[in-house]
């Protein structure tokens, strides 16, 4: 084979190789996702996402196992107002919420106090503003599971939590008087964050609480 032929062949193979790099490859796609996971192992980033979602939202979708006769043992979801502020309006990450035995969640947790809280960036309208569907992974969300703990009315923590909650949810004053609401805290057990393609990331609880927000 002449040098000219060899050179021409090499050029052709190079052109084919370059062209292939612009074609979709499931293998390459998988490699990129794997690389993304490796590059973002720093859990503090995901912890901050979770803390931000919790702090920015006024409510959560809360899942329990139903004790209602008609939906017994079915997963049940309710809208529950939440707050993670201290009395100075600063985020603590501690999720406080009001419950009443007149509602589904109030009854369910006393049978099984394991619950799931879901927060999504779409609750603040940010995803819609960016033209992102709520189901897209790039519309950040966090799933937080844990156990409901009713706070001790005689403790300072109870007073502070209730004060902070009323600051964020003024209607709570009326709820407390007329519907026998009581304030609870979520004893967080597990945290998952999804904010990009490649699946959810587990966030250690201690990383969540130590995350620092920019506001």
What does this structure look like?
The protein is α+β, with helices and mostly antiparallel strands. The chain has helices at residues 3-20, 26-39, 43-56, 104-111, 126-129, 156-168, 172-178, 205-210; strands at residues 59-65, 75-85, 91-99, 114-120, 141-150, 182-194, 201-202. It has a 6-stranded antiparallel barrel with strand order 1-2-3-6-5-4. The termini are far apart.
How is the topology of this model organized?
Elements: H1 3-20, H2 26-39, H3 43-56, E1 59-65, E2 75-85, E3 91-99, H4 104-111, E4 114-120, H5 126-129, E5 141-150, H6 156-168, H7 172-178, E6 182-194, E7 201-202, H8 205-210
Antiparallel strand pairs: 1-2, 1-4, 2-3, 3-6, 4-5, 5-6, 6-7
Quick synopsis:
With 215 residues, this protein is an alpha+beta fold.
Task: Please tag this protein with its features.
215 residues, single chain, 7 strands, alpha+beta
Structural class assignment? alpha+beta
Give the DSSP E fraction (strand runs of 2 or more residues). 25-35%
Number of DSSP helical runs: 8
Mean pLDDT: 88
Order of strands, main sheet, comes to 1-2-3-6-5-4
| Shape category | globular
* Element pattern in H and E: HHHEEEHEHEHHEEH
Could you describe the largest sheet, including whether it forms a barrel?
A: 6 strands, antiparallel, barrel
Distance between the termini: 70 Å
Low-confidence spans: pLDDT under 50, at least 5 residues?
15-22
Could you tell me the radius of gyration in angstroms?
A: 24 Å
Number of strands: 7
């Amino acid at each position: 084979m002449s040098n000219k032929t060899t050179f021409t062949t090499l050029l052709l193979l190079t052109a084919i190789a370059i062209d292939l790099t612009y074609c979709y490859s499931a293998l390459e796609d998988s490699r990129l996702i794997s690389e993304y996971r490796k590059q973002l192992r720093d859990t503090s980033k995901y912890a901050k996402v979770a803390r931000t979602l919790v702090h920015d939202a006024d409510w959560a979708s809360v899942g329990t196992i139903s004790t209602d006769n008609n939906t017994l043992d079915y997963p049940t979801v309710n809208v529950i107002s939440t707050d993670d502020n201290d009395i100075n309006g600063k985020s603590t990450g501690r999720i406080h919420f009001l419950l009443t035995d007149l509602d589904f969640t109030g009854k369910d947790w006393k049978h099984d106090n394991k619950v799931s809280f879901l927060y999504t960036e779409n609750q603040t309208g940010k995803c819609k503003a960016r033209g992102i569907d709520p189901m897209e992974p790039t519309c950040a969300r966090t799933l937080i599971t844990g156990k409901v703990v009713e706070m001790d009315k005689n403790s300072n923590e109870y007073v502070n939590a209730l004060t902070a909650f009323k600051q964020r949810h003024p209607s709570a004053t009326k709820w407390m008087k007329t519907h026998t609401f009581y304030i609870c805290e979520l004893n967080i057990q597990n945290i998952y964050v999804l904010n990009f393609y490649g699946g959810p990331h587990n966030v250690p609880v201690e990383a969540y609480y130590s995350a620092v927000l920019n506001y």
